[in-house]
Design brief:
Layout (H helix, E strand, L loop, with lengths): L1 H34 L2 H4 L3 H24 L19 H9 L3 H19 L3 H9 L3 H9 L5 H28 L2 H13 L13 H25 L7 H15 L1
Helix pairs in contact: 3-5, 3-6, 3-7, 3-10, 3-11, 4-9, 5-8, 5-9, 5-10, 8-10
Length: 251
């Protein structure tokens, strides 16, 4: 009888321990089930907002850094600045007359000015990102357009980018010699007999417009990349948000 009395507490201890182990295992399994459940793959509103802003900060930082580097515009055929449309006939004429070096100098200097201006864009984009509403985020992430974020930037930043770029472009054109080269080119062309369409040597507006267009082009590529490619989603938050968005918009 004494042995039975002594064994009873021991049995209770073992039973309790076994129960704890079973509960721990069940909790662990339940956790793994929840982590893989559909509910867990749906990001919250806060995650959607944070994920999009994180993606846009990374995308705009990469875009402005690349375009503001040497040859950021000049080395990219898709956005490289060429002669303004109204001056392309003049360029062809002058090249035939042997002014190739002057024409090349103009093109290089236009691109250097755009590269200088691109470096001023990042704070403007960051400000626009911070001002996004929840509705903006929803429209961008779940709308039908694959460049909705880029379109948002066009609406929210073009005026400010223009105001910021114009003085930078003006100073840069002078610094890199574009104004001088283009004035020389305009002078040479305007001297040609029977030239009726004279060249306007004012380049500020043209370079500003093309620099902004180049930025939006590059940002659109970044946006498409993160929407389409898992490897570009470099954080768990980006993977969750854009994985959900990709599945939602493709369904």
């Amino acid at each position: 009888m004494k042995k039975l009395v002594l064994l009873t507490p021991l049995l209770l201890v073992f039973t309790a321990n076994a129960g704890c182990d079973t509960l721990t295992a069940a909790t662990s399994n339940q956790g793994s089930i929840y982590s893989n459940s559909p509910a867990q793959t749906i990001p919250s509103n806060l995650e959607m907002v944070s994920g999009l802003k994180q993606a846009l900060e990374l995308g705009t930082d990469k875009s402005t850094s690349q375009l503001s580097a040497v040859n950021g515009f000049f080395g990219n055929a898709a956005i490289k600045l060429l002669f303004p449309p109204e001056a392309q006939k003049a360029e062809n004429t002058l090249r035939k007359l042997g002014f190739n070096k002057l024409c090349d100098d103009v093109i290089l200097s236009l691109n250097r000015a755009a590269e200088d201006a691109a470096g001023k864009a990042k704070p403007i984009f960051i400000s626009a990102i911070k001002q996004m509403s929840v509705q903006d985020v929803t429209n961008i992430l779940l709308g039908s357009s694959k460049d909705a974020a880029t379109q948002y930037f066009r609406r929210a930043t073009t005026d400010q980018l223009t105001a910021e770029f114009v003085p930078v472009v003006h100073n840069s054109l002078s610094k890199v010699g574009a104004t001088r080269y283009y004035s020389q080119l305009a002078t040479q062309y305007n001297r040609i007999p029977l030239t009726f369409n004279k060249i306007n040597p004012d380049l500020d507006a043209y370079v500003t417009q093309k620099a902004i267009e180049g930025l939006f082009y590059r940002i659109a590529l970044e946006e498409l990349n993160i929407r389409s490619n898992f490897s570009s989603r470099t954080t768990p938050l980006l993977q969750k948000v854009f994985g959900y968005v990709q599945k939602k918009t493709n369904s």
